[in-house]
Amino acid sequence: xxxxxxxLKAYDDLVGRREHVGMLSSRSGPIVDVNARACAAxxxxxxxxxxxxxxxxxxxxxxxxxxxxxxxxxxxxxxLTLTTExxxxxxxxxxxxxxxxxxxxxxxxxxxxVEAMPLDLPFAFFGHSLGAMVxxxxxxxxxxxxxxxxxxxxxxxxxxxxxxxRERSRATLSDAELLHALESFGGTPKEILEYPEYLEMVLAxxxxxxxxxxxxxxxxxxxxxxxxxxYAGMSDPHVPPAQMMNWEQWAMPGFTCRSFVxxxxxxxxxxxxxxxxLLARWNDDAPPGIV
Length: 291
Description:
Layout: H1 3-15, E1 47-50, E2 58-63, E3 84-89, H2 106-116, E4 123-128, H3 130-144, E5 153-156, H4 175-185, H5 190-193, H6 196-214, E6 228-233, H7 241-244, E7 256-260, H8 266-269, H9 271-285
Parallel strand pairs: 2-3, 2-4, 4-5, 5-6, 6-7
Antiparallel strand pairs: 1-3
Helix pairs in contact: 2-3
Domain Thioesterase: 58-278
Family: Belongs to the thioesterase family.
Organism: Dyella monticola
C-alpha cells in the first residue's frame, strides 16, 4: 500500500468515513431537523447498532471523542451478552453523515439526540472524552423533559461539567495550534498529517467538536444527580484520574472512579477490562430479568 492509500485508511480508521473524498464539496449547512425516534426496527441516522440481537433487553449507548466516530465502538458487542446491544451515536460531519456540516453547540446537539433517542428499552450511556459531556447533557435534557433516563452514566477521560467552559474555545486555534493539540492526545495516525486533503476534513470536524465542549456551561442549581462511574487512563496527561473525581458533584451516592493502565486512549488496549467493569456495575443496578 502506498502512502496515499495508507493515509486514506488512516482517515477511515480515525473517523470511520467510508465515502469518497469528493463528497467534501457536497456538505450542507447545519442540520435543523431530526429523524423520527430510533427504535429496534430502525436505528435511524443518529445511531449505528453493532451486534444486533433479537433477544436484547437493554442498550449501551456510546458517545465518541472529539474528531472520532461511532466505529470506535464497532467491536464492543463481542464483549457483551446477547441481552445487551451496543448503539453508538453518529454525529453530523462523519461516517454515514459525512455530507452534513458538523454541529458546534452542545444544547442544539443534545436536543436533537433527545428527539432521536431510542426509548423502547432500558439503557445506559458510555461517553469517552467529548462523548462523556454529550452523554451528560443528553441525560440532563431527558430529565428536564420527564423522559426515560439512562440507568447509569459511565464517563471516561473528560473534565467534569463545571470545568469545561473555556475563555477561548480551541475552535479558534490556528491550524498549526490545532494540529499540536490533536497530536498531544495521541491516537492520530501520522499518515493523516502528511496529506492536506484528509487533514482539512479532520480539522473541520475537530473545530466543531472542540467548540461543543469548550463553550459548555454546566447546569445551574446543583440538583442534577445521576448514578455515575468515572474511568481514566493512569498516564493521561490531559485528564488524569484526580480530575475525574470532580464528577462526584453530579453523582448519586456510590460514585467511584477506576483507572486503567494507559493514556487518553487507554480504552483501545483495555477494552475487555473496561467493558467487564462497566457491565458489573450496570448489572448491580439492573432490575431482575433485565441482565
